[in-house]
Records
---
Amino acid sequence: MKLLTIIGARPQFIKAAPFSEEYRKNNEEVLIHTGQHYDANMSDIFFDELGIPKPDYNLGVGSGSHGKQTASMLEGIEEIILKEKPDGLLVYGDTNSTLAGALAASKLHIPVYHVEAGLRSYNKLMPEEQNRILTDHISDMLLCPTQTAVDNLKKEGITAGVVNTGDIMYDTVLRNIDIANEKYSKGLWFDEIVRENGEISKISENEYYLATIHRAENTDNPEKLSNIFKAFSELDKPVLLPLHPRTKKLIENLEVGMKNIIVIKPVGYLLMLYLTSNAYMVVTDSGGLQKEAYFLKTPCTTLRDQTEWVETLENSWNVLSKIDVKEIKSKVQRELTCLQHPQPKSFGEGNAALKICEAIVNGGKINE
Ligand code: UD1
Ligand code: UDP
């Protein structure tokens, strides 16, 4: 079966790695990179580290307004569908690349497979919520990471083609954590950060907060963004912040203090896994990183009012914080009672790639 797969943003490369490997054992995949993310440290590095096949097409759409970016992807993907005549099209997650791919295929009556279907924050102001709702409602097969996602779809009347496969990011973590530990232990993680960024003050394992910030709802509001940096500068441990290019641009116009904050360039996946697993806590507004912290048993504080990954909140492994200086400080510096609690297996067994392949090839059936 010939599948056309759309990727374009950092988290999609990380999700694609295990799936492409599994699917290509017995099937044909044509890979389209939309070019939504294009810096080497937002794109190429993941292909190199994770052995993702070279894309057959790169649309090179780059950055732009939602309308311009999505329209340009839609046009490019449509052309490729007409040329390649695939049996189906697969999209991951909730970015503009996801929606463009799903919409192009749906209009041409090509079956749409949505990996990470059914997630909801119930905040329709988020571009991701808009993208995922629209994508779910035009998808033919909805490959869900959790039972919560299956239940969310049911509430919207979607039951046909819904399959719980477990979370594919869990597959990627399990396949790479030993490799990351091998590559970065014995202080080599710190050497690499210095090599890439120049001298920084010394930080020790388990004695830093690992932070990432990139959500539009936080970065596009100057007051919120300033509050986040103010809170970070007043925390009791240094904050290591691999900074997303979106946020880097936006803080250039803001008067934010950097005391206690070590800003570095975005890092590759293996170093990120190592840093996550050895952090005292992760502080983030990322979707993927909340889960990785959970998989690696690192406590997390999420700088948002909602999370789609509600399972991580159980026993306070992950805690939500409003963007308020006092609240961020108290949530981050909370007592870590979670460390005494086991984690239920809410994200599957780490074999989502295989289950997604089975579901696609067998019309929705997976071997239990
Ligand atoms: C996108 C997704 C978001 C996802 C995130 C993962 C949408 C609407 N948003 O957000 O859901 O969580 O990716 O990281 O699809 N930029 C660069 N170099 C790059 C890429 C981006 O400099 O390689 C800068 C540009 O200034 C660009 C800005 O980052 O305008 C935002 O990029 P964009 O892809 O539009 O959205 P993200 O914030 O990355
Ligand atoms: N990530 C990375 N390097 C970084 C920051 C994040 O490899 O400097 C990885 C992170 O480990 C996770 C993914 O990128 O696997 C999450 O992507 P992001 O936070 O950009 O998007 P989201 O998951 O919020 O959509």
---
Amino acid sequence: FKKIPINGKKTDELYKMTETFNRMMERLEESFLKQQQFVSDASHELNTTLTIIEGYASMLRRWGTDDKSIQEESIESIYEESKRMRKMTRQLLDLASLQQGIEPIREPFNLVECCKQASKLVHKLHNREIKIHSTSRELIIVADPTKIKQLLIILIDNALKYSTKFIEIYISEAEGDMIIRVKDFGIGIAEDEIDLVFERFYRVDRARQRKTGGAGLGLPIAQSIVREHYGSIDIVSEEGVGTEVIVHLPKDGTS
Ligand code: ADP
């Protein structure tokens, strides 16, 4: 984009208009570059996964019938990588639809019950204790129940993935907001990386993450869900001590 040069001789009005135009162009360029980066990261992730699947399929074709251990390793890896790819494409579709700006459903439901359901689902994957503390058995929120459940699943899954002990969830209400805190005692996140984890495809340790199965899309989805509910999401974390994700959502579903 080419900026319009600001000529000192122009009137104040024109000067202001030119400045506004230049700022708009800068923002447009920034979002265009971000979009380009996103497409490139998504292609890279899908390409890496497909390369691995292709490699194992080729091994299976050459030596699979003679060597039982190669057969087992290849089948297992192809299965795991396909699962990873399916999760990633699902998350990409979720992000795309969240960014279309369609208004979410707003209906009243019990946030404590929703949290219990999300915990039950994630518990099946990790089989570790999830302690839920709430100020009441029934805390009603006006929001999209499916999306809030998805948000909770992402946060609970992360808390369990990046720790080895039990995790805790606190649900309370204050000043028109519901407050959800998901707390773990795991590896934590370095201070200079806390803002970065909300970027699409950002992972603190790319090499290790392949094992845990994440593509770095969970927190961006969580943030989009919170934003479309006019809420906020913050992370308080210390490396080696643990992480707490704090979500504020307006109780009545309005900004
Ligand atoms: P992923 O699917 O890789 O977990 P996310 O977007 O959910 O993607 O998270 C991005 C990165 O943030 C993760 O790869 C991990 O490095 C870091 N992270 C997220 N949650 C936690 C947590 N509770 N404790 C430590 N690190 C975390």
---
Amino acid sequence: AKKMGRNRFCWYKAEMEQQQLDKFNLMMRLRLAVKQQLFTLAYQPTYDLTTQSITGAEALLRWFDAELGQVPPDVFIPLAEETGLIQELGIFVLQKACAQAKSWQESGFSLNIAVNISAIQFKQGDLPAVVTKVLAETGLAPHALELELTESVLIEDRMLVKQQMEQLSVLGVRFAIDDFGTGYSNLGYLSQFNLNSLKIDRSFVARIAQNDKDLALVDGIIQLARSLGLDTVAEGVEDPQSLKLLLRAGCSCGQGYFWSKAVSVDEFSALL
Ligand code: C2E
Ligand code: CA
Ligand code: CA
Ligand code: CA
């Protein structure tokens, strides 16, 4: 910096450059990790609230990097989307999760597998082909696979997504809206897309035992879903009081630390 007055600016600039460097490093590590398949999947069970039995597993990506340690998906997924690496990573998740579900089924446990899909995975228009191939290779029945989409996916590229969802629905693949309530206020898509369930975001579920308004909101979402013939999954159930309230409100399923966090294959098998 030539002038004193610029010091502040330079300091911010240095910080920004550092951030960009970190991001660049993270991107390089991510690219390497995708190439070397350094990812694993953790599985979080979903429970039927009335029977307290496991109905399915949600596959959640885990990345342990030798240099960076455990990198949370909230950090690397957006980066994988930005770089397009999510395409390859997404196929890996589908393959691995469907193969695992098939293996659990062969051991005598009937359960569904839920896989998170990001908007980018619809961009090339080949998601139905990718899913068909994975189902054929793993031998998993299409109705045992549920794809989780956020509201924003249904809003962007509306026709492209709708078309592919229809093809997948014909196969028997199911769809859930993830983080329901955090996206858009226009609910028109609920009747326009082929959906099977709504996953109520944990930001609403977290405080239902403490806050009457949050309870009213969750209650309303459950009524709405039921009137549309959709299942409801409450995310982030952490305590028995919340479970009681959800049951009373007519919620069908739940997921959360009250039962289990996302765990390894072996730990999940022990829960079955
Ligand atoms: P999500 O799909 O909403 O997944 C639920 C997240 O909440 C998971 O975090 C899970 O570990 C956490 N969670 C579950 N129960 C509780 C609870 O009772 N309390 C609290 N506080 N948290 C709970 P995770 O595994 O860190 O994943 C974060 C996000 O990363 C996911 O949110 C999803 O959007 C994304 N993600 C993870 N795996 C994949 C993937 O394979 N593909 C894509 N596209 N996104 C993924
Ligand atoms: Ca999800
Ligand atoms: Ca969610
Ligand atoms: Ca989320």
